């Protein structure tokens, strides 16, 4: 049977997976520091739920059914294409067991039958945080969530990430203020700015019924981007006023001023950001890696007035999601990151001969008891060959049982030695006390600007 | 749309998920201490590969296809039902990039369309370690792998796990030695011992063509179970000899004696264990939780002479797999484990009024900078209500900014206080120096024998 990769389903070699694990560890650790417990949802949802939510009717859903299927009575199932639809269902299903406002993080794979391309996969990992409440959701959560993500990014070995924030009430109020009533239609056209440029957007707006002057005003609004609160003055300079616009400006000012106080430089007000036209109702977020803006957004989200609803109760929420696979795929694909070794093992314990393997195993056990990952050599080959075994995997130390000078007193077993195979330095060592430098204990993630 | 759980697809509440995370953390940490790097494989494999390997033709495979399917040219895909078939494919696909002997661990979900029942799921997590080599695999790996699992179990908050070990060459050589040539057929009947008992097994063996004496000998062999090396003498007392039997006894002696030296009590020789009749060729493992033997095996595996083959090269391997979801489902289902709280947050920082939220956020930031997970209260409610918010989630500490006595000197902001809401004790505290007792920093996993 011929073996070929399946397009859109990436797999990593062990050293790449170490980079991925490092990212996932930092993401989880930061989410937990901010008090977001983890949940996981099943991979499948009923297809009618997948089709009914999430806005885009063209999500390419993977259906799932037993090959030996005989359960015509069962609901048709599909793999989830994001973590928001399953989370909304989980909240409704478990509302009686959850304490609200309910915070959670969720890091799982999702599947989309899209056309694969650079940074676009059919199976990929997302890392989400959301806060959901019953009936009403306090606005300060819209300021809190991007700060959590800013902390994640500051701890990852990547360049500077900038979270661009807008509030949907700003374009909405502004459009109403200049007499444009088709807010969604207008937003949908302005949202094409990155793709087709301002001249073409202006034409499309005029085609849709706006005056040339209204179109120019829409473009002027979308061009405002500030790192501080001056965006509000710049909007007011356009001479438009509307109560919904004021609401939006106040809300965005609260988010940006919290960013300035807690994570200077991490958040900018960018009035072009629209996102998820059908479900976001307040703050919206997108995130770019500085210097790689063309790669698009790696972390997006916003506020929903109705994340979930069971007909009687409505659950508003706010959430942000990191596209982990997209980010990693691009960073690894452009050789911008690598792991210092392809195994967690820090030490290879050499084996003198097969009979003395138990001695080597005892050394390994002593090292592991103090948290030092290690491996016993697979064969009692010549030491040069055992060193090459370590070298090929990037294991920095090789331990030689009995290679040292015998201690004083007759009958004592000779001591051990350990060699740093990078420098060649070999020293006496005792497995009950020796420790590597902290930076060698676990694989390092090394960065190089491509 | 009515919301109902999908049978066989379990989901956890946040507190249960904390128990699962604890298990997965210990499993990964132990695997890494033993030098097993992680890999993950895609969730899908070509259906013909899933059907062709793994032995059981009756694995209930879930097929996967795009609802908007138009790719008739693409291979038919299915969700993997274990991690061995994907690993074997991964080894063949990446052989040129891997260093052999290749060790890896893999912790992922798998899917089987089986009839759901207690401890049997349609979506569940397995945690595997394997070592695979090219052409030949050194036998010491068969002794090493169960020691890794024994260390995992010793660090989990569960009762005693006993790994039962056998070597397939023992029954094979023994059967040949008493003149029984249908080894697989005989093993298949003896394998029913747990289900139908010795009398019925003896009858079936006689029906299959064995003499009553041969049948009794088979049962006598299967009854041997020892914690030390005496199993070999007990086999020899049965008066049977065959070179393959001797090979098997020597191999099993090496595994058990390594267990006695490195993990006393964790391994037993149990000559009844057969497992995976079609593919295991040497050592085989099963694992029982002492006192809950009826729950069956939680950790099984063995040696394959041909884990994978591309026609030219054969890759022998040895592997063991923990059924994480099965184990957790039973322990949680029988209330034998619980988490001390439903959130990672150790501290809730109270909010005096909405205007002073930034003060509370600064406290939280200072605590997080020193690794203390915390959350800022959602509302500036009465303190009693904020304390109840913490209580409901099991958060042990509530922090009150400015509740302390003002420091000396005019204009100083009053200091903070922190309350242990379990004891009610409230003391002065400084966010840049205060730390909880170590056992409160992260949720504890609490055990109760059911």
TrEMBL record, chains A, B:
<keyword id="KW-0067">ATP-binding</keyword>
<feature type="region of interest" description="Disordered">
    <location>
        <begin position="407"/>
        <end position="450"/>
    </location>
</feature>
<keyword id="KW-0963">Cytoplasm</keyword>
<dbReference type="InterPro" id="IPR015807">
    <property type="entry name" value="His-tRNA-ligase"/>
</dbReference>
<dbReference type="Pfam" id="PF13393">
    <property type="entry name" value="tRNA-synt_His"/>
</dbReference>
<dbReference type="InterPro" id="IPR004516">
    <property type="entry name" value="HisRS/HisZ"/>
</dbReference>
<dbReference type="Pfam" id="PF03129">
    <property type="entry name" value="HGTP_anticodon"/>
</dbReference>
<dbReference type="InterPro" id="IPR004154">
    <property type="entry name" value="Anticodon-bd"/>
</dbReference>
<feature type="domain" description="Aminoacyl-transfer RNA synthetases class-II family profile">
    <location>
        <begin position="19"/>
        <end position="344"/>
    </location>
</feature>
<dbReference type="InterPro" id="IPR006195">
    <property type="entry name" value="aa-tRNA-synth_II"/>
</dbReference>
<keyword id="KW-0030">Aminoacyl-tRNA synthetase</keyword>
<keyword id="KW-0547">Nucleotide-binding</keyword>
<feature type="compositionally biased region" description="Basic and acidic residues">
    <location>
        <begin position="410"/>
        <end position="425"/>
    </location>
</feature>
<keyword id="KW-0436">Ligase</keyword>
<dbReference type="InterPro" id="IPR045864">
    <property type="entry name" value="aa-tRNA-synth_II/BPL/LPL"/>
</dbReference>
<protein>
    <recommendedName>
        <fullName>Histidine--tRNA ligase</fullName>
        <ecNumber>6.1.1.21</ecNumber>
    </recommendedName>
</protein>
<dbReference type="InterPro" id="IPR041715">
    <property type="entry name" value="HisRS-like_core"/>
</dbReference>
<comment type="subunit">
    <text>Homodimer.</text>
</comment>
<dbReference type="InterPro" id="IPR036621">
    <property type="entry name" value="Anticodon-bd_dom_sf"/>
</dbReference>
<keyword id="KW-0648">Protein biosynthesis</keyword>
<dbReference type="GO" id="GO:0016874">
    <property type="term" value="F:ligase activity"/>
</dbReference>
<comment type="similarity">
    <text>Belongs to the class-II aminoacyl-tRNA synthetase family.</text>
</comment>
